[in-house]
Amino acid sequence: MNKVIILGSTGSIGCNAIEVIKGLKDHRIVGLAAYGNYRRLGAQAAQLKPLIVTLVTEKHRGALRKDVGRAKLYCGEDGIEEMIDRLNADTIICAMSSSIGIRGVMRAIEKKMKICLATKEILVNFGSLVMKKARRMRAQIIPIDSEHSAIYQCLEGKNRADVLNIILTASGGPFFKRSLENVKKKDVLNHPVWKMGRKITVDSATMMNKGLEVIEAYHLFDFPVHMIKVVVHPQAICHSIVQFKDGTALAQLSTPDMRLPIQYALTAPNRLRSAVPYLDIARAGRLTFVQPDFRKFRCLSLAYKALEMGRTMPAVLNTANEEAVKLFLNDKIKFLQIPGIIEKVISKHQPRDGNLECYLQATAWAKERVRSLVC
Description:
Order of helices and strands: EHEHEHEHEHEHEHEHHHEEEHHHHH
CATH topology of the domain at 2-143: Rossmann fold
Number of strands: 11
Helix content: 40-55%
Distance between the termini: 52 Å
């Protein structure tokens, strides 16, 4: 029996992961963790009966206590690490919406668990630290993002020296063919393909999401920046492409459904029947691919710039974006102000290298810098 811990069980990825695991007879959920959605976490605990439940925000401990039954209840970020230590699980799904779970991921690497990674921030903020430790401990990290899952699958069994480029596809978001002027929040949050959380939906609209995926791909697959490309593919049927030196391009195509990359991360290299509808290629229609407009979607350019500067700069970029998106969602700034705020923050940062605390200090600095610019 494969024992699984889910970090971020109440979010979109976490809920989909639970549905996937219900269909896998040899997997059992033994630990659940969420940031603050204690009602959904309590309902999940009552249904799944894990051994340990962790809630990062401690103020709802009392309200959650009655719902977890015989499960042990931990709180705070330290509770994530303690849960990982106590359970001795085989697999961890990291799907928290920020880098809160970084210490838990590092602990999972130390325990040589299989890490199914959906949280972009873990690699964007701390990629060099995480991958260095994973290589040293020989811990397996398998991506859940549909684009990175596609690249992972296309590279399986291939000679890295034969690769020319890896090409991440982007849906283009709601404004691919529309002006960014005078957009309303409801338009920003209306993604044409995926049903996602509010923050990642805003990131898709600015194309920062694709920029963060470029940084993530750099760390996951260890190819130079110039070999990581982006194309806009509005149909979201082709999830990414690997181009080889002989002219061959291998692509992964499937129905756009996050349950598929989640299941593959859990069961790789095996391919089991899933609940995802099969892609009817004859009915898929025309598939189009175009270059992204870097001038229109400035966040994508900023992500490449941060990656080229390296060290703590991607962490600062990501944190500035997180804070700017929060301000937009809270009606404090306009949509078009997001890239300008990010650019101002990264222009004031001197990137440096160091341990985890160094990177955490950089993210704390970026938060304060955004607040000082707006408040």
